[in-house]
Amino acid sequence: MTKASAETKVTMYRTMLEAKLFEERVGSLMMSGQLETFYLAQRGQEASSAALGACLRRTDSLVTTYRGLADQVAKGVQVEAILAELWGKETGICKGRGGAMHYMDWAVRTYATGVVGGGLPVALGLAFAEQYRHTDGVAACVFGDGATNQGTFHESMNFAAIFRLPLVFLCQNNLYGEATPIAKSTPIERISQRAVAYGIPGVTVDGNDPEASYEVISHAVDRARAGEGPTLIEANTFRLMGHFIGDPMVYMPSGEVEHHRAMDPVPIYREKLIDDGVMKELDAAQYEQEIVLRLDEAVTAAREAPYPGIDTLNDYVYKADMTMDKESV
Amino acid sequence: MTSADVGTRIINLKDAITEAMFEEMERDDRVFLLGEDISDPFGGVYQVTLGASTKFGEHRVLETPISESAIIGCASGAALAGLRPIAEIMIIDFLGVCMDQLANQAAKMHFMSGGQVSVPMVVRVTAGAGGGFGAQHSSSLEAWICHVPGLKVVFPSTPADAKGLMLSAIRDDNPVVFIENIHLYWQRGECPTGDHIIPFGVAAVRREGSDCTIVAWGRVTLEASAAAEQLAKEGVDVELIDPRTLVPLDLECILKSVRKTGRLVVVHEAVERGGFGGEIAALVQSQAWESLKGPVIRVTAANMPVPYSKPLEAAMIPRIEDIISAVHSAMER
């Protein structure tokens, strides 16, 4: 087990803060009518995402979901490019073709899907490619508790196990699958128990504790790099903004969100790092100011950027070069 | 076709597919196979991959659990990472099991990413009735995948075409579904050796004629060919076209033919409703209306699942007499 260095701790905090401030900004842009989109916030779940990002190399792959902003930021995707994508602009990371639920940045090897459980099989292939090429690269796949009831979860766990793929399965258990609480959908106590069925290690961790998450995730990543196969990690957490921004959360008992908001991992970690002498109050304030400024500029840039031209409507349906169509051959 | 190797010999369609895959695996280290039961000594349910694991090693021939979504997902992810997988889904009916991975993930990755990534993968599937396997193992579902923008759909009916199109499928950077009709596996024909490439979107005119165009693909190319011969004896001169690839479609070849003959009969083994014959009919009617002497006629399976009982199964597939009858109708105008 590797413990996070001081430098890593601060990096994780800054990632968590960037994700938090980004999503709060998206929320306020939507509520004020400036940005129209369907947005599923990872707000509240940043700690294990930041820890995962700190454990992965730029060249490792990360598959996430429609609730993956913190994962993507942790992997190195730039907020400017994401914001422009949410606005559907040509300058967006996917030129407005992917949008809130399916944006990706291949320069840092991220992929996201809007289909619950749909990313796990893809992660198999990304991990397999590392094994095929005899590298020590790994793939990680982030998904929620809801996805663990999807057939693809079970297929993927089994497949990864039988081939000892270098894959880290990170389940962020936020206690809800869309509008259904976990007790109504899942008959077992811990998602990590499911690992037993596939003969791989399963571990539960406090997903709101970035340092505990870092230890567990780095161990899984090390195992994968060493050819020891996949691990299932269950990171317990909570989604503070409901299923989507604007969700009235009618299906959640009153007081539940407030209860979890009081345990918001971002301000708690800020306090811890300052108390532990790892980060100075002044630096924490500076990080916040820098991010706020960056977001201000990103909003302006995204607003002013052009939409994709209608003359490009049919682009990217097929890859046009390296095709065997008669016009090209 | 390159001048490097112009030999030719008679082989069967399934061996032509095997040859193409093996040649490409030798040429390009990134190509690998994955699917159920594909390793030696079994070598795949129709033995199309027989010999692969012995020749190339288990490293490049991944025999998977029965997990269609995992197979297609693994192929997609590997393709994203720059490998060139050839995934086998045993029977086209099983696409229902993995359709999200194929239609929502693989087909859309290039698009949703704004062109950042490509998915150079091939999905091989068997299709077709006649084996007595019944409704869940005998369908012809090319229409399902033709309807997914982002996928290419290849459906060869001769050994030479199977080889040339498989080489192209592997080299194309897009996801290609390669359909293999089981009735055609043992069809024999001349097949070039070596690097024989057939581009996509190029139909084959099997027979030139001036009275009526027949477009047919897959298994029913046999029935259509037999029908054309019989019609010739009556003095009806059929032009027979095999599109070979449905997406992209060589519409220009079909239009040129219809402008000459004025009549079109489309034949496919798939059921009539929503079949790709309707797509071709609509395209031709919109672009060659003035040339048409009458409506486009479709000869297809009835809208039903494939029955198990042999006489029922045989009755369901378009027969030579059904095609002749359709051409006779077309010739009335």
Question: Would you mind describing this structure in some detail?
Answer:
The complex is a heterodimer of chains A (329) and B (333). Chain A is of the alpha/beta class and 329 residues long. Helices cover 42% and strands 11% of the residues of chain A. Chain A is built from eleven helices and eight strands. Chain A has a six-stranded parallel sheet, with helices on both faces. In chain A, strands 5-6 form a two-stranded antiparallel sheet. In chain A, α1 crosses α2 (46-55), α2 (46-55) packs parallel to α3 (69-75) and α4 (79-86) runs parallel beside α11 (281-304). Helix content of chain B is 37%, strand content 21%. In chain B, the strands form three sheets. A seven-stranded mixed sheet of chain B has the order 3-2-4-5-7-6-12, with helices on both faces. The radius of gyration of chain B is 20 Å and the shape is globular. The interface between A and B is large, with 54 and 53 residues.
What is this structure's SSE topology?
The complex is a heterodimer of chains A (329) and B (333).
Chain A: H1 6-31, H2 46-55, E1 61-65, H3 69-75, H4 79-86, E2 110-113, H5 119-132, E3 139-144, H6 151-162, E4 167-173, E5 176-177, E6 180-181, H7 182-185, E7 202-206, H8 210-225, E8 231-236, H9 256-261, H10 265-275, H11 281-304
Parallel strand pairs in A: 1-2, 1-3, 3-4, 4-8, 7-8
Antiparallel strand pairs in A: 5-6
Helix pairs in contact in A: 1-2, 1-3, 1-10, 1-11, 2-3, 2-8, 4-11
Chain B: E1 8-12, H1 13-27, E2 31-35, H2 52-56, E3 61-63, H3 68-80, E4 84-91, H4 95-105, H5 109-112, E5 122-127, H6 142-146, E6 152-154, H7 159-171, E7 176-181, E8 188-192, E9 204-207, E10 212-216, H8 220-233, E11 238-242, E12 245-247, H9 251-261, E13 264-271, H10 276-287, E14 297-301, H11 310-316, H12 320-331
